[in-house]
Design brief:
Mean pLDDT: 92
CATH topology: 50s Ribosomal Protein L5, Chain: A
Radius of gyration: 18 Å
Helix content: 25-40%
Distance between the termini: 23 Å
Strand order of the largest sheet: 2-3-1-6-5
CATH superfamily: Ribosomal protein L5
Largest sheet: 5 strands, antiparallel
Shape: globular
Number of strands: 7
Number of domains: 1
Length: 171
């Protein structure tokens, strides 16, 4: 690991998402499940971006729910989610910007979650955003500037971070 603190890779946020495809009881069940899994944080609805008559979707229709975790909450949730995946990820889970995402097929695989007959069987997606200190200069409203190529996180660096910091095996 580098001695330079600005080169250190950090977990910026972990986003947990359940897509159900339609509003109604299933969406409410997904919200209560997500709230139970992440420890009481309030989930928000996700909406359809465009109209799709094949799936009977209208623009703006609620079709899913998500929660964003940061800091220690994000690290502890990610650790549990990786246990559900047996700490194995594929190289295709990583994108070119150094973020990675994976899915848990059934919520009962998650450590500490028990089957509830009132809630249908759901799976969920987990997206992990990585960053380095100083990335905020690209996101801020006033005087935003791009960061240099050497400061961006590559796919290989993200894979190495997952191996060393998260103890993940890459296939």
């Amino acid at each position: 690991m580098d001695a330079n603190k600005m080169r250190e890779i950090l977990i910026e946020k972990v986003t947990v998402n359940i897509g159900v495809g339609a509003p109604g009881d299933k969406l409410e069940q997904a919200k209560s499940l997500l709230e139970r899994l992440v420890g009481g944080k309030q989930p928000v609805e996700t909406h359809a971006r465009r109209r799709d008559p094949v799936f009977k979707l209208r623009k703006g229709m609620p079709i899913g729910t998500k929660v964003t975790l940061r800091g220690e909450e994000a690290k502890s949730f990610l650790d549990k989610a990786l246990i559900a995946k047996r700490r194995v990820l594929k190289q295709t889970n990583f994108d070119r910007q150094g973020n990675f995402a994976f899915g848990v097929h059934e919520y009962i695989d998650f450590p500490g979650a028990k089957y509830d007959p009132a809630i249908a069987m759901f799976g969920f997606d987990i997206c992990v955003s990585l960053g380095r200190p100083g990335r905020r200069v690209t996101l801020r409203k006033l005087r935003s500037t791009p960061i240099g190529k050497n400061h961006r996180i590559t796919k290989d660096e993200a894979i190495e971070f997952a191996r060393s910091a998260l103890n993940v095996k890459i296939e």
